[in-house]
Design goal:
2 helices
């Protein structure tokens, strides 16, 4: 059995970023922020097919 050490600080930062991204996308869908704001945060929007 192979065990790996997980850096808890990296996981914590990733979860915080996911939560912030979720809030940003919700505010975009509600019309409170622009698409440029999302792209500046690194969130990419795609066009639907």
């Amino acid at each position: 059995m192979k065990t790996t050490a997980v850096n808890k600080e990296v996981i914590k930062k990733a979860i915080i970023k996911m939560r912030e991204d979720k809030v940003a996308v919700r505010s975009f869908l509600q019309g409170k922020t622009s698409a440029e704001t999302l792209t500046s945060k690194g969130i990419k929007l795609v066009k639907t097919i």
